[in-house]
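Hi there,

I know you've been waiting on this one. I reran it after we fixed the sequence typo, so this is the corrected version. Both the input and the resulting structure follow.
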Amino acid sequence: MNRAKMMMRFEPHMEKNIFKLFIYDTVTKEGTFDWSTWEAVNSKTSAQYFADQLSQIPDNAEIELYINSNGGSVSEGVAIYNQLKRHPAQKTGYVDGIAYSVASLILQACDKRIMGLGTSMLVHEMWVEVAGNARMLRSAADDLDNWMKANRKVYMERSGMSEEELIALMNEERILTPEECLSMGFIDEISEKLSKDDPDDDPENNPEDDPEDNPDDDPDGDSPQEHVLKNIKQYFDMRESLIKSTHQMTDVSRRRKKN
């Protein structure tokens, strides 16, 4: 079995003062367990990992953020968004595959937002798994409403949509095409092909980016069995993240009641 793929890669291009960040998996605080090596793997899509990488990037640099993620932990994603927003570097975000849920929110921190052909985005209402009595369930729903109100401001700031329009769109929970995202203000551009001016985007000039020479960096290089196992792992990772978020909401509600 191939070694575990890196969920987020930090790739400096010092000669151009360009730093590339990749979010290619579920956004989560906790790491995963690599069944091929029987070792715990630290999360490379956590806010802490992101903070560590951003601290190495100078203020006058350029950041290229590449996204292919189903989303994940809201708290981690919001923290990553704010870290990116604060960094003085010029930031360009690329959607390479999908930008769903909180991954689409992280994209909004970039100065320029670009979606490729065949990509998609999902902007929707948050959801959590909640357990408890009626009072706790009502409290969790109230907290979720407050979280949604805060997160809608991020999309409204970049898109120019009204809150009513955004609420209606989120309630639909439908997949958005690049053309729809462009018209709604969620992105600034649709990329039809690789830039001819950037030789680093050509596999011949950058062997590390060529899937044939580097199968571990090719998201489509899995065997059918590995692909199924990867999807199952992503589901359980996201479910675990949601359960932890639920516990956090419950703790907040209890402390509020005590005060």
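Quick highlight: The longest helix spans residues 224-258.

Best,
R. S.
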